[in-house]
Design a protein that fits this description.
Elements: H1 2-17, E1 24-26, E2 31-33, E3 38-44, E4 50-55, E5 57-61, E6 67-72, E7 76-81, E8 87-91, E9 96-100, E10 106-111, E11 121-125, E12 131-135, E13 146-150, E14 156-160, E15 166-172, E16 175-180, E17 185-190, E18 195-200, E19 208-213, E20 219-223, E21 228-232, E22 238-242, E23 261-263, E24 269-273, E25 278-282, E26 285-286, E27 292-293, E28 298-301
Parallel strand pairs: 1-22
Antiparallel strand pairs: 1-28, 2-25, 3-4, 4-5, 5-6, 7-8, 8-9, 9-10, 11-12, 12-13, 13-14, 15-16, 16-17, 17-18, 19-20, 20-21, 21-22, 23-24, 24-25, 26-27
């Protein structure tokens, strides 16, 4: 027995002395629900609903997971909220941007012209109702990505590119952020699409995938290879990470290939898990220092 106690104390001392990263690794989601089709995009709307983009279909859900009904029946990989609460959604197959009211009523559409490859793209909006579209590296022509700026009716206002292979695009204030897939860079542009430098994504990043902004002006970045969801500052410091359940890290929710992410104005974090077909909800805890965390329970540090 004495030997066992000694061994236990040695192991405990070794674990305590091991270096730990400065950011926290957060545990399981507080709740989740399964849409009727494979989910790729989520949007936490200011009215408290959750918009879900599927392959195919656009749906509105309550936070309890109640399906409030279909909005449209097209393949949707990207959505964004307009200043008045309307939602713009990208039609992957028909290369079209559709606009809906917050209750799901159709408003108008405009087609994306002179697009190489298919309609795989990401869009964001600004406070003046302009729409920015990142056309991804995809399709039979293997066209390198570029970014275009449109007004709300579809008139093209600006363009920049090509850039390296990229998937994620978001806006914080007057700055656009575009996550390149392989370079470990997040490019910065002003609202006229003029380059403003870049942010380096720290290790262990592999393939930066989707990119969103949280309500505190931080970045939500998913990694396609390591299956992680990170919350980062705009200077590249990692604040928190949702991990993928590697062996030896008990208590972590095992989601794979995380896709769309969003944060509602009241702090609820939302993530799309296309591998398992779930929309994951992470309740936000906000300290006086306004440091938000994913999940109700911290499963430890990494």
């Amino acid at each position: 027995m004495r030997r066992l106690i000694t061994l236990f104390l040695l192991l405990a001392a070794t674990f305590a002395a091991a270096p730990r990263a400065a950011h926290a690794a957060i545990g399981a989601p507080t709740s989740w629900f399964a849409p009727p089709a494979n989910v790729y995009e989520v949007l936490g709307h200011p009215d408290g609903t959750i918009w879900v983009g599927c392959w195919p279909g656009v749906y509105r859900f309550s936070r309890a997971g109640t399906n409030l009904g279909p909005v449209a029946n097209f393949v949707c990989l990207s959505m964004a909220t307009c200043p008045n609460g309307d939602v713009v959604a990208l039609d992957y197959v028909n290369r079209t941007v559709h606009r809906f009211t917050s209750s799901g009523a159709f408003v108008r559409s405009f087609a994306l012209t002179n697009v190489g490859g298919d309609g795989d793209a990401t869009l964001v909006t600004d406070d003046a109702n302009n729409i920015y579209v990142l056309f991804k590296y995809n399709g039979p022509n293997y066209v390198l990505p570029w970014i275009r700026k449109y007004d709300e009716f579809g008139t093209q206002l600006a363009e920049t590119g090509p850039i390296d292979v990229a998937h994620g695009l978001t806006r914080i204030g007057n700055t656009l952020y575009a996550a390149e897939l392989y370079t470990k860079k997040i490019l910065k542009f002003d609202l006229n699409l003029q380059p403003q430098g870049f942010v380096t994504v720290p290790e262990p990043s592999q393939y930066s995938y989707t990119l969103e902004a949280d309500r505190d002006g931080n970045l939500l970045l998913t990694d396609y290879y390591s299956h992680e969801l990170r919350r980062m500052t705009t200077s590249g410091s990692v604040l928190e990470t949702v991990l993928n359940g590697f062996p030896g890290w008990p208590g972590y929710y095992p989601f794979w290939n995380p896709a769309g992410t969003s944060q509602a104005p009241d702090g609820l974090y939302i993530a799309a898990d296309p591998e398992h077909g779930f929309v994951l909800l992470f309740g936000a805890q906000v300290t006086p220092a306004r440091t938000s965390t994913f999940g109700a329970v911290k499963a430890g540090t990494r």
